[in-house]
Input
Amino acid sequence: MSQKLTDSSKTSSLSSELLVKIHDLMVKSRVLEERLIKIYKTGEAYFWIGAPGEEAFGVALGLLANKGQGVEYDYFHLHYRGTPTLVAMGLTMEDSIRLIMNKETDPCTGGRNFSNHYCFPEWNVVPVTSPIEVQYTVAIGTALAQKNNPKLGITVVTGGDAGSAEGDFASSLIWASRPGNELPMLLTVQNNRVGISTAYEDQHGEEYIADRGKAFRMKTMVINGLDPVESYLKLKEAYEYVRIERKPLLLEARVSRLYGHSSASGANFEDSFSDPLQTFEKTLMKHSILSEAEIKNIYKKYEDESWEAVEKVRSEKPPRAETVWDHTYAQGENADWRKF
Ligand SMILES: Cc1ncc(C[n+]2csc(CCOP(=O)(O)OP(=O)(O)O)c2C)c(N)n1
Output
C-alpha cells in the first residue's frame, strides 16, 4: 500500500459505540452478500455482482449521508457495489434478496433487474445502471439542481477504477468544476486495481486516479478504504467540504474485491486481497471493544436473518407479464404523449 495512505489501526478517534455500529453494519453487508452468492450458486438467481471487500468504505459513505427525498437531501448515484452503503442507510436483507431472486415484491425494479442494481426514490438513490460510468454524467443533473439550494443537499457518485477510462468520468470532472459554477458533488472511485480481468497497471499511466481532479483545481483525497476508521473520518471531512463549500471533491478509496468481479467470473473467494472485516475485528479485539464470542454472535444474528429472509422471499411471485412496460413509459394521466 502506498505511503500516501495513512495506517490507522488506532480506534481512539471514534467512540466505541460508533465502532461497534460500523462493525455490525459491515458484518450485515458481508453476510448478505455471501447469502446472495449462495442464492446464485444454488440456481435460485441468474446473476450476482456485489461488494464484499468494500464494507469499510461503503458503510461509512452510507452512515454519513443526509438521507431523504428531494434536493435538500443527498442524492446517490451508486454503481453495482453499493450494498454496504445501502445497508448503512437501512436496506433490509429481504429487499436485496427480492431483487436478486427477481420477485415482483422487489421495491427497486419489480424483479426486473440484476442484483445490486438498487433504486430507492425515498432516499434519493437513483437507479443503478448496467453500462458503467454513465452515473457520473447523470449525477451532474442532481448536482445542478442542488447548486443554489440553501438546504445543503449534495450529490454523491461512485464507480470503479477501470470505468474511470470512460468519457462520462471526464465529462463529470469538467461539469463539476466550471469556474464560478462549481457543483456540490462528492465523486468517489473505489479502486480495487482491476477491471474484470484488466490489471490497473495495464490501463492507467497515473498513479492516483484522484490526481486527475487536480487538473480541474478540485480538492482530492486518496484514502485507505479498507480501514473503517480512516474511511469514516476522511469521508466526514469530504462530505462537510462539499456541503459547506458547494464545490466538488474527487476521492479515491483503495478497496478489495474479495469474490472476484461477479458470478460471471465464478464468485469465488480470492485471498490475494486483504479482508477489511478480519483486520477490523483483530483491532476491536485488541482494544477489548468486542470479544471473539460477541463477534461470532453478530455473524450468527445475520446468518439467521438472511436465511429467514430467503425462506420468506422464495415463496413470493415473479413479476407478471402485464407489468413489463410499467415505469418504462409515462402512465396514468400523463400516458397520452400527444398532450405534450
Ligand atoms: C459501458 C460499459 N462498458 C463495459 C461494460 C462491462 N463491464 C462491466 S463491469 C466492468 C469493469 C469495471 O471495472 P471497474 O470500473 O474497475 O469496477 P469494479 O467492477 O472493479 O468494481 C466492465 C468492463 C459495461 N457494463 N458498460
Notes: The pocket of thiamine diphosphate is lined by residues 81, 130-132, 159-163, 192, 194-196, 257, 261 (CB under 6 Å). Residues 173 and 215 are 9 Å apart (CA to CA).
